[in-house]
Amino acid sequence: MNNKIFIPAAIVIIGILIAGAVIYTNNFKSPEPNQEEILSSEQAGQKLIDFINNNILQNQTAASLIETVEENGIYKVKFNVEGEELEWRITKNGNFVFPQVIDLKEYESLPEPAEETGKAAGDFSISNDEICLEDGKPIVYFFGSQTCPHCQWEHPVAQEVMAKFGDYISFHNNMDSEADMDIFQKYSTGGIPTLVLGCKYYRVGSGENAGKDQEMADLTELVCDLTDNQPAEICQ
């Protein structure tokens, strides 16, 4: 099994997990306006702050209001908790709070995930996508973070292999970088490290279980396939 670390998708706010994307404020003990009443931005912002302080933080610390603005028919409330600036939403009648907002347009623009058509050396998946090129050279993508121990193992191995190919490939070394996120979203499940070789081979996870020598051999074999076995001294 590949070694990998998954990037968390849940939002953690000052150590308190909020279950669900919508909170009905009437379920908590706080003064409520008439259901038909529309709150001013100042009233809505203060109601949200009171709700957080009274029902979530409960005197352990305190949230302070920064500003409240109208956005898409609801109020966006910026507030501060222990130096961290956060944004929640609240309806104009003050009855519903949204700790997290999902932008559907972002999801509509996400690329279709790659379709696996087989397996290759090093437990890489094979896609039926065309080989992605930059200046006529296959592109190799590495995605990882220094905070990920499996990335720390894989990164120097990948660098060493890709250096042998020189100008025969274009190496996008995205360690601690948010570049090429469209490629990451298409070929990764959200885990790191992720390697994408020419958009033909892809893998989430490191090759450390196989060991450095085997991982280098597997990477070399796959990249040689992309470069038509060039350079000859590497792709024997």
From TrEMBL:
For this entry, the protein name equals: Thioredoxin domain-containing protein
Superkingdom of the source species:
Bacteria
Alphabetically ordered keywords of this record: Membrane, Transmembrane, Transmembrane helix
InterPro entries given for it? Thioredoxin-like_sf (IPR036249), Thioredoxin_domain (IPR013766)
Q: Which SUPFAM superfamilies match?
A: Thioredoxin-like
Q: Any stretches that span the bilayer, and where are they?
A: 6-25
CDD domains in alphabetical order: TRX_family
Keyword Cytoplasm belongs to the record = no
Gene3D superfamilies associated with the record: Glutaredoxin
Ranges for domain Thioredoxin? 136-203
